[in-house]
Structure formats: C-alpha cells, structure tokens
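Please check both lines for our workbook:

___
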Amino acid sequence: MANLLDPIPSETSAEIIQVLLATGSFRLERIVSNGQATPPGEWYDQDTHEWVALLSGTAGLRFEDEAEPRVLAPGDYLLIPAHRRHRVEWTDPETPTVWLALHYPENSLQLSAVSFQPTD
C-alpha cells in the first residue's frame, strides 16, 4: 500500500514531482515542495486544466489577473483553468508542502465541487 504523505524527504533543492496515475485522458501527480517558488517573472500557462489540493504545508498561489496570492492550507483545493496564467509565490520552507495535482484536457468534462452531507 502507498501513502501520499510518506516518504517525504526533509530537504530537497528542487520540487519532487511523482506521477501517480496517467491515462490518455488525465495525469495525477504528487508534488512535494520545500520552500520552492516559481522563478521571478515566470508564469505557468498550461494547455490543460489543473485541479490542485494541498495535503500538507502551506503555499501562496497567484493568478496573473489577481494582485495578491491565494494562501492555501491543508485541505484547500481549487481549479486552475487551462491558459489561466499563474505562479507559486511561495511554499512553506519549514514543513513539506504536498500537493495533489490532476491535469486533464481543456476539451474534456469539467470537474465540479461535490458536497457531502452526513447521514444519520
């Protein structure tokens, strides 16, 4: 059995990107950051949609059309539409920041948020 939070190296000079599952329709990655950020002046502009969830650590994710980064904490998730320029402003240098990232084509079905209601 595998675990998304283990093993995580305590210090790395570069992000670790591990492909967990890939098909012709999508790619699921685990990304581990230890204080890394997108280089100054650079922006991601992807051909695919990317749904990201933060499992541990904290991060600042900024969209080009927003003045301030969105601060992500464990449990937070968001959808980054294809071609929406964005960058990672910062990740926690003390605690590994573990991301789960799902990439899927621009012309495929859209993911929607699902609310779970407890049952009695």
Residues 54 and 99 are 5 Å apart (CA to CA). The first strand starts at residue 16 and ends at 22. The beta strands are 16-22, 27-33, 48-56, 59-63, 70-72, 77-80, 86-91, 97-105.
